[in-house]
Amino acid sequence: MHAMVLRQLNGPLEWSELADRVPGPGQIRVRVAACGVCRTDLHVVDGELPDPKLPIIPGHEIVGRIDAVGPGVDALSVEQRVGIPWLGHTCGVCRYCIGGKENLCDAPLFTGYTRDGGFATATIADARYAFPLGEAGEDAALAPLLCAGLIGWRSLLMAGDGKRLGLYGFGAAAHIVAQAARSQGRAVFAFTRPGDAASQAFARRLGAAWAGGSDELAPEPLDAAIIYASIGDLVPLALRAVRKGGRVVCAGIHMSDIPTFPYRLLWEERQLLSVANLTRQDGLDFLRLAPQMGIVTQTSAYRLQQANQALADLRAGRFEGAAVLLPS
Ligand SMILES: [Zn+2]
Ligand SMILES: [Zn+2]
Prior knowledge:
The protein is α/β, with parallel strands linked by helices. The protein contains nine helices and 17 strands.
């Protein structure tokens, strides 16, 4: 197999030939057809997340076909198309796993961070954390659903059912969530980097009622806002934009420090919360609903060997929607 491997933090990914791996008990081996590129991959490469496995193969929006199954795997079979998300393994015995909150597991493994991911021609996954995808839809179009879609979906649930929804940072996750929210009859207000006319136009094309800079206020108070950009300064801005009793959801895994802000921005029962990871049920629910909601992803394709370029373009905001790596 071949992979783009991160050997040291802040370094480039290196094209590497590796020995083929054999799935162990409960595992599958998947021939990667497409793997999305997520902002979290940047946080891994930049060393902003604690204790990554090194060397590591990043990538946690994997679409591929099973080409080998390990002992004890009954629910999946060779040639089946599956999606492999960020949450790659949980312990099954901690209070969170038992309580139905496996996204908060005390001893999890995360794809492309603490276990090898999908910037590769093949990967090994825990069979319990692979979602059957069926045959509808292109591989590349499905890949962003596996994280941007899933975490986006979980953050949308956390935002409550308010009709006026603000989205801060209009990248891969927001472009999916905007479509989901529209299909639910909500009005979407998109906040981008100030002056980013291209992203604002993109948001309007996806049905946003309003799009502007994050330094602006929407024309009306929001019921909820979700922050996808990893910029702590957005927290007080979003709190300022929501109505009394409104919610601000931080959906990223990493964020720069939140500046101090006057208590009156939180006062009047506004809520500030974060979303961590996903549960398998989130995945099953969202992947079933996505076609019904008419979600169409916009992707920019790169060859697997161009992973460093894809990461650089993501960092610089040089494309709309989601980048996807294709091994062949
Ligand atoms: Zn656990
Ligand atoms: Zn992700």
